[in-house]
Amino acid sequence: MRADFEQLGLKVIIVDTTSVTFLPDLAQALQQQQVGVIVANTIMRCDVVLLAAEKHIPSIWVIHESWPQDQLDHYAKEVFMCKDIDAQIIRRAFAAAGTIVFPSNMQGHLYDGMFKPGAGITIYNGIPLQQLDSFQKTHDRRKVRAMLGYKDNDFLVLHIGTVCSRKGQLYSARACCQLISSGKCKDLKLLIVGARYIRDHEIKYIDQVRQVAESSGVSCKRFEDCKQEELGEAQVTIMDIQAEVLRFYMAADVIVVPSLNEVLPLVVCEGMAFERPVVCSRIDAIPEALDDGVEGFLIPAADSEALSSAVLKLRNSPELRRSMGKAGRARVLKQFSYHTMGKRYRELLDTNIASLAAAPLAISSHALAPVPQKLQASESVPESKLLGRIVLVDMDNTMVDWDGEFIRRFAQVSGQPESDVAKLVRSRRHFEIEENFEASDRQSVLSVVASAGLYESLQPLPGALDALRAMVQLGADVRLVTSPHPTCPGPCALEKYSFVRKHLGDSWIERLIITRDKTLVHGDLLVDDKPKITGTFSLGQNRPTPWTHVLFSQPYNEAVQEKPRLSKWSDWQSVLTSALSVH
């Protein structure tokens, strides 16, 4: 993990959590590094949350655990063996935390009354869609099924998860065996993945599943005991726990999750990502992942009859399976992707950083002092409407030709003629570059965006640098306000510093503001090519942005109306002066 952070250009300092001086050491590191926000992970880091409150540092606390309020001591002391925390410390931390993140609404409700109103939010955990999609692209479903012993006409029901009473495999066995023995679904095969033979109660539970099959006259075998030619013959197959599970999702026709006790199992989301309908118990946070009759079915817990009925409906309607599968995939893309999760965390960090907005904004080793209210005219600076005004200027595709360098690099990587790439990019309709390419090319696009040296190699747009210098001469306070690309935030930021130093000189470093949220930066005008700029300044409020947005013309913002527009830098003075009148 350290290497991952360092690859992003981030400094990593490790404080030993096992040391008796951990908290004093951490406090010293926080002070030395001038840390602005603390992110604590798991309920066991309640001590760090309390330290953040003591030091008046905004905190974000990510809770994974589901500990009932009346059992906090039991879980802390006896289950997780935490000698330094107890129920009292945990309750103090919940009360002191700035923001508490839960992976489901249900989990947050477990701790109702322990934290400040509005402090708790839900951010669903994402799943690695890129990995799942890559598996689907590189594997043939018929071959995957054949490797497991299943034929094209087998209706395969998958139950994946540690075989134990909490996961409810007994109900899957009862439901499927009833369908098979009654003749309603003779082609049904049940694959149970997740058996382990360590704990006595789990071994006994596996035996119970076998007994259900035997009493129904249904064949049942352990996968690992089968010869190659016997694979898939048994109507119920029990397989040992597996590290790699993607092949099972691809092979399955239906996923069943009849659990008795869960939070929000990833198997639900992973199954939907493979466009498989899911049949789940209506318990805990599972109803937050799917709607009954849309992405699958929600059934009462411990109800094998309801499970049997839902499976039969899906068996008898391939179209229902397809429609539910597509709806599930769409739900995952919207709610459970890494992209969605990352976006929510970025918004959360921006919101917390907003609490520091009144202080000077720290940029690397520099700090931007508050902007003077009004500059005085002098003999060397002619009177201008720009005098004393704060002009914020974006960099990529506003001050510099980002597209030009991307075109050159993508043509080299893809082997496409540069003229063809330029034709697509220079006339694109979407602001985000990857959205203008076919899905198969998007990973290559993002790799180019993150390639070393791209931002440092950008060339200024004609007249841009002269315009910036002229604004300063006319008494404007010019700030370069730019956002790092999420694929490479650390290197991107460092390269932007290098670009500014190279083309404008060291003094302009003091004018560079790197932020993901431009609404936190106040000014009179913001010259930017992005069609719509939003952020935490107006989050949940009907407040305008703290500047007038002057669009720098690009093909992807042509449809935007009723905003001042700068098409070329030679027109900057008349356009900005006119925009100031509106502001």
TrEMBL record:
One of its GO terms (molecular function) is 5'-nucleotidase activity. The keyword Iron does not apply. It comes from the Eukaryota. The keyword Iron does not apply. InterPro entries: 5'(3')-deoxyribonucleotidase (IPR010708), Glyco_trans_1 (IPR001296), HAD-like_sf (IPR036412), HAD_sf (IPR023214). Residues 141-330 form the Glycosyl transferase family domain. GO terms for biological process: pyrimidine deoxyribonucleotide catabolic process. The active site is at residues 394, 396. Keywords: Glycosyltransferase, Transferase. It holds the Pfam family NT5C. This is Glycosyl transferase family 1 domain-containing protein.
